[in-house]
């Protein structure tokens, strides 16, 4: 079981006084320490409630965001990730930009061995868009290539 | 957030005065600038409302079109893509030809690093057809082979 | 759009005077010319209404047939393929034989770069059979191996 | 088996010389005689490939149309129904209007004992519309009420 | 357990010498005695492998047939029912006629308290047909009405 | 929480010394007392692992059995029900007979206010059978009629 | 086809200058005239992209909203309905309140013969809420009762 | 929007100091005031994470609990409902008892016009149990009967 | 079509005098000759009705068995395979043992180029087991490795 | 069939006197001997009823746990695995920690050639977490890499 010192830096989980950000807020992201650095393992988040705005028309867009990464020393805490994703609610950007921005913010936060971000956006005018971006350190360049290949959707 | 100059050349999105083309119209396609050229990422469109005509009988055909690509410097704007696909509405060609034509028009437009187009056509007389075509620049020849292999349908 | 000369040899599509064959009839198969020979692309047919007879008991069998191929110069016309498959209606053979015969007839017709045929037969006495056969020219021997590997069903 | 005189008036089925109408064309509808008038029975058509235009923007719309009726003396022939529905391809009307028009044309054609028409339109801007209309002669007024109640969608 | 005399009249089940009929053959239908005549109960058959021919073009049609009935004194044996339905394989009739004929043959065979027959035919040219017919003796007239109402398809 | 006296008569639950019966064994059924006799409530069991033998050929048959009832004073204990259903494993009877026998045994055991039994048998030779039987005391005759009506399968 | 005068009052459809409201805005709702007032018919909207805020914590909530109504003289235009529902984006209320407010606003707008509103909210802490409200004029009181009964979810 | 006085009595929502009860704890249930008492409407909760213990073996059981009710003056707050259901985690009772206890506790709390509780328990030894209980005041006796009838599972 | 000499050795298909074995009976397996030895092809059987007994408690277990192989000279006849699998009905072994035994018996029978056997067993006490075994001759060692890798279940 | 000496060490299966542990209890895990050490084969467990507590808030979490391994000499007995997983019921840890702990305990117990553990946790606040860890001996390092690659979820 995690003891209190191992929960150090986790301030948002179980804290309800925190205000939900209404503007893009990468600063809310928090981390905790990886207790199993000896083996490379994979952590995936699925966030089916992402919403942002169209940069030209202001129309709301909806997406499911999938984030997968292999941690190095730090791991993102899930409640802070939820608040961060919520902060796109009144932010306007193309779908392709949102996915790249989320990936870059998480790289800056955690310095993961490998990370990928995918957005499954709901259709507009009979067309849906699905952007996918990924990154790896020098030991994970082959994984970057393999996951790119595996991430082409066959039918969605 | 995209500023106005970064939206340069995007004339159709949010513009309702534009007329829907009734003949094959590759000239309606528009692009915007790729802001993340440093990492290769994947963008997929799904267009479940494609319809064209049989070149011999004039009978309407229906398909879902899937387009995936890795951008170089230009990216296709989704509303212009919708208008382009709509322009096949009164156009007669075999299913296999439509998929090849769409791929060639998007290569001419964007010069992508890699692109693939798949058509999932509804059955006629108890038989459905699914054509798949793909293309890559010299750095993506291995991806062309791998994606061809991965695109055989197992059961549809 | 295909012009008339490009539709040369297509006699069955849109022709209703043709009689439905009641015996195994490979001679009804027709082809048209491949207009995109420069890039290798994939065409798949799905035929969920295949029916043949048991060679020993005469009992009717039902299957979905999946055919995928990479064309060289000729392409099979889909209405003629439908009539060909219909000609098995009163033909008796084991499931494994039907799939091999269909593949061999299409190789003789089109000389494709690569082809595969799969039959998903409905269960008899609590057991279903699914045969899969494939073929490639000398440039596609690696594809023959890879597709064989990919075609093991995980759960059907 | 139906003999030739019982197929009287069926001119489109198996006739490929007929041209596909490009304007709203209720006159293509054909009927054949009901051979089982002694018992009331139900016939349903499902037409997943309906497409029309928005009356204000010209944008194409897509729908699945469901038609159910109890015949009196005449029955609508399915190939002529297909051509009729195809004639909406370049016609602009609200979804609610299309469904009412189809129902009224079929009442004029067949004088059925009971009929209902439902349209399941694909979403635009995150909202889908599903209109349902029905009609019965004086013996089927209770059926009109019961089917209206049963046709509220629970989740689509 | 059923003893031998209770299996009286069941000649086809477990008998492989019987030849599969190739023409419409209502005479192959067999019955066994209902051992629970004291309570009204319901028996349903589903037959997903029905195939017949178009009366005008000779083209094969495919359907799932659903038969439900409340037995009086006789019950139809399932293997004989299978052979009977198989005998439509080379028979040409409209979908609406097939369903009415099957129902009338089973009424003549068993004199059931109530019976209904539904055919779920695969689409032709983008349109599928689903006929439904039912019948009841004088004690089951309300059931005839209620089941007709319940058999309108909502979405298929 | 149930105290020990309220568990009186429950001998099989949590008792592993009991032998699995290999012949039809209605005597293994056990009951416990209904603690909520003031309100009529519904209990349903689903048993997807039922298997019996064909009375003529000895071939094994498989089914999902659904049992629903409104208790009076006694309730069937679920582990004893499992053993009882297991005892059909080497028993030969028509599907229609099995469902009637299970219902009659449970009426004799519990004297329920209402009970119904349905069997969803896997197909043989392209035909599946689904028998349904139900029973109610004099206060539940309307429920018997309504549930019979509601139990016609629409598509399975 | 609707002519221009029949499109009178429809100002938002095809008009992209309109700003998306950021506060609860029932005033954006628009209507058009019902051209088929002679028969009662049913119109359903499904809006899978509804989002509002928790009145106590400010946390975003997500829902699919289903609206069904029978029009009298006026019909709600779908693009204005989309903008109205979007105006809940920064509004805080219990799920049960949102559904009642939407229904009351639409009654005030259209005076429909019958209307119902259902919200299918995504789970929080392992519990999901689904509110349903309905209303009818004096001729539709039986429909109010029947639809309430039919709207209990069986499993969601 | 709910103001603060309308949130009176809601102490658990957004309050993380509250301890999760480890014993059956009906006292944690909280209510808020119904703001729409003029129209009868329906509220449903789905709780897929219910777990309790077998009263005889101590083995954990898992269920989805569905609760539907028509409020009178008080409505149960969803976070307090979650804590209440969590309090069964170390409680031993038969499935049929749990469902009856939950219903009786909610009647005592809210005095609803109508309420029903259903438990969909995961199978043990190939048998699953699904109990359903319901209650109504004198104006809702017909609803009690109708919902009982509608709650028989057809196939789960 | 297979002629009679090509059906040599097939004694069980269409023969109803054969008794169903009640003990483990590998001797019932029969083969026929492979008529297409020139190309390596794949044959898969799916047997969703497998049942055996727990070796310690005697409790019945249920599974779907999947068998895939590449034939050399002999092929297993499907009706004999059905009888063989049926012979496990009163046999007690761990799931992992059954799968290995079936694979070894089929290797001894056919000497296939490659074979794999998978068992998808229904859960007991909230845990399901899925064993997978495979084998290849010296030319198929790479296939053994690749199929092992591909057979890890992602979610079942 | 396994004889008694081959069941040596299996004490929990079919033994109901054993108490369910209420604290984390790796000591309950038991093994039996692998009878097929000559071929490498794969065993998978799926445990959809895992529940643990949040280390900070005490809130219960729910998951499906998937365990796959290739045995060396010892195999984990499934009932003891069930009891072990049950012992997390009152244990508080992050999802990522639980999956690593389960994998390490099973490595210590069995010394498998390869093992992987995946947890599919239900969402909290709109975000779900899915951790995956794996391990192999020196002969299975390539498998470790390949399975990591294959275990990225595409959509869950
Ligand atoms: Ca993928
Ligand atoms: Ca893929
Ligand atoms: Ca594939
Ligand atoms: Ca595969
Ligand atoms: Ca309905
Ligand atoms: Ca409904
Ligand atoms: Ca129905
Ligand atoms: Ca219905
Ligand atoms: Ca039903
Ligand atoms: Ca029904
Ligand atoms: Ca309902
Ligand atoms: Ca219901
Ligand atoms: Ca029901
Ligand atoms: Ca696989
Ligand atoms: Ca896999
Ligand atoms: Ca994967």
Automatic annotation (TrEMBL), chains A, B, C, D, E, F, G, H, I, J:
GO terms of molecular function: preQ1 synthase activity
Binding site for substrate: 76-78, 95-96
UniProt-annotated location(s): Cytoplasm
Biological or metabolic pathway of the protein: tRNA modification; tRNA-queuosine biosynthesis
Enzyme class: oxidoreductase
Signal peptide positions (record): none
EC number(s) reported in the record: 1.7.1.13
Entry GO terms, CC: cytoplasm
A Gene Ontology biological process term: tRNA queuosine(34) biosynthetic process
Keyword annotations of the record: Cytoplasm, NADP, Oxidoreductase, Queuosine biosynthesis
Family: Belongs to the GTP cyclohydrolase I family. QueF type 1 subfamily.
HAMAP family listed in its UniProt record: QueF_type1 (MF_00818)
Protein name: NADPH-dependent 7-cyano-7-deazaguanine reductase
Organism, scientific name: Duncaniella dubosii
């Amino acid at each position: 079981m995690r003891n209190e010192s191992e929960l150090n830096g986790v301030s948002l989980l179980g804290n309800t006084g925190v205000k939900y950000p209404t503007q893009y807020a990468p600063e809310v992201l928090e981390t905790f320490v990886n207790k199993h650095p000896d083996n490379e393992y994979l952590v995936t988040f699925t966030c089916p409630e992402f919403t942002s705005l169209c940069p030209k028309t202001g129309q709301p867009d909806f997406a499911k965001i999938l984030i997968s990464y292999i941690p190095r020393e730090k791991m993102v805490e899930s409640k802070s990730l939820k608040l961060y994703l919520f902060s796109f609610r009144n932010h306007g950007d193309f779908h392709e930009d949102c996915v790249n921005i989320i990936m870059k913010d998480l790289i800056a936060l955690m310095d993961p061995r490998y990370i990928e971000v995918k957005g499954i956006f709901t259709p507009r005018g009979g067309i849906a868009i699905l952007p996918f971006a990924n990154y790896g350190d020098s030991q994970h360049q082959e994984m970057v290539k393999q996951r790119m290949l595996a991430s082409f959707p066959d039918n969605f």
